[in-house]
């Protein structure tokens, strides 16, 4: 019987450039059982043959095989995948490649849109005139429901009531929640109209006073990222010596009704302010 070199787990770990923690994990999975365990000290020993087994395991992992799949190969004593298994792994790889290429394209589009945004003036100081609005207040399940509420509830009702909206059109929302909630959002939708109409169960008409000064900021992207723009906007307000005078408005320019990609949605946050 030939002599077997036995390496302590630390030595084996150093030579194979793999942590002891990983070796113990492989042991628990049944993939690489120590050649010998000292019953008194608990020291684990590995052999030269197990170096090659570990290399085989690593090679299969690099090809996309999970530890469970590798374990099954060793249970079957084949130690190598069959042609059908390799074909299946190729199909998985191709599917993942398509997914990664799609993700890459979306990330590139996002970069391009952000570069376009950076060229435009994002923040401005404006006055908001006195207007008449058709108003609808509702508790909606999420910000994504704003588009459906506009398209399928408020829009048809305003059309039924014969509302006329002055061009280019001005609509916005005001939130009435006292604290943040990702669901059950108490929101009021307002759209400018030419004249007062007769209230209905869905829409009520009212006159909003002029706002002498509002800090306005363009927000590109889905509504659940408003917090990013609010952070930048409120910092601007504080640094330029303003204080908030009323609830912010969110005006919608582009959305689900005309842009399929949420990254291209344009909203304008308008915060009434006054000088400190």
Provide an overview of this structure.
This protein is α+β, with helices and mostly antiparallel strands and 276 residues long. It contains seven helices and twelve strands. It has helices at 9-16, 20-28, 48-62, 67-75, 83-118, 145-160, 226-239; strands at residues 6-8, 36-37, 44-47, 123-128, 131-140, 171-175, 185-193, 204-208, 211-220, 242-244, 249-254, 266-275. The strands form two sheets. Strands 4, 5, 6, 7, 8, 9, 10, 11 and 12 form a nine-stranded antiparallel β-sheet that branches. Strands 1-3-2 form a three-stranded antiparallel β-sheet. A hairpin with a 6-residue loop joins strand 2 (36-37) and strand 3 (44-47). It starts with 5 loop residues before the first strand and ends with a strand. The model has no long low-confidence stretch (mean pLDDT 86).
What general form does the structure show? elongated
Q: How many extended strands?
A: 12
Question: Average pLDDT, to the nearest integer?
Answer: 86
Radius of gyration: 32 Å
Assembly annotation: single chain
The CA-CA distance between the termini, in Å, is: 91 Å
Number of helices: 7
SSE blueprint:
Blueprint: E1 6-8, H1 9-16, H2 20-28, E2 36-37, E3 44-47, H3 48-62, H4 67-75, H5 83-118, E4 123-128, E5 131-140, H6 145-160, E6 171-175, E7 185-193, E8 204-208, E9 211-220, H7 226-239, E10 242-244, E11 249-254, E12 266-275
Antiparallel strand pairs: 1-3, 2-3, 4-9, 5-7, 5-8, 6-7, 6-11, 9-12, 10-12, 11-12
Tags for this model:
3-stranded antiparallel β-sheet; 276 residues; elongated; alpha+beta; single chain
What's the quick description here?
The protein is α+β, with helices and mostly antiparallel strands and 276 residues long. The protein has helices spanning 9-16, 20-28, 48-62, 67-75, 83-118, 145-160, 226-239; strands at 6-8, 36-37, 44-47, 123-128, 131-140, 171-175, 185-193, 204-208, 211-220, 242-244, 249-254, 266-275. The protein contains seven helices and twelve strands.
């Amino acid at each position: 019987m030939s002599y077997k070199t036995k390496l302590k787990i630390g030595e084996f770990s150093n030579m194979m450039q793999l942590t002891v923690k990983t070796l113990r994990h492989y042991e628990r999975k049944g993939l690489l059982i120590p050649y010998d365990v000292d019953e008194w000290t608990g020291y684990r020993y590995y052999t030269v043959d197990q170096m090659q087994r570990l290399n085989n395991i690593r090679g299969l992992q690099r090809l996309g095989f999970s530890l469970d799949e590798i374990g099954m190969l060793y249970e079957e004593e084949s130690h190598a995948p069959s042609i059908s298994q390799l074909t299946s792994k190729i199909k998985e790889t191709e599917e993942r490649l398509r997914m990664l290429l799609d993700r890459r394209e979306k990330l590139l589009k996002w970069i391009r849109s952000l570069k376009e945004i950076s060229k435009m003036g994002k923040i401005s100081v404006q006055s908001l005139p006195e207007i008449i609005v058709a108003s609808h207040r509702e508790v909606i399940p999420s910000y994504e429901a704003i588009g459906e509420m506009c398209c399928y509830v408020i829009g048809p009702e305003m059309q039924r009531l014969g509302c006329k909206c002055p061009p280019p059109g001005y609509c916005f929302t005001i939130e009435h929640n006292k604290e943040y909630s990702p669901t059950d959002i108490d929101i009021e939708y307002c759209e400018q109209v030419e004249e007062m109409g007769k209230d209905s169960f869905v829409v009520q008409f009212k006159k909003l006073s002029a706002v002498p000064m509002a800090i306005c900021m363009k927000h590109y992207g889905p509504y659940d990222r408003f917090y990013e723009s609010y952070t930048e906007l409120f910092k601007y307000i504080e640094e330029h010596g303003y204080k908030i005078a009323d609830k912010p408005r969110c005006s919608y320019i582009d959305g689900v009704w005309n842009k399929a990609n949420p990254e291209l949605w344009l909203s304008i946050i308008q915060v009434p302010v006054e000088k400190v």
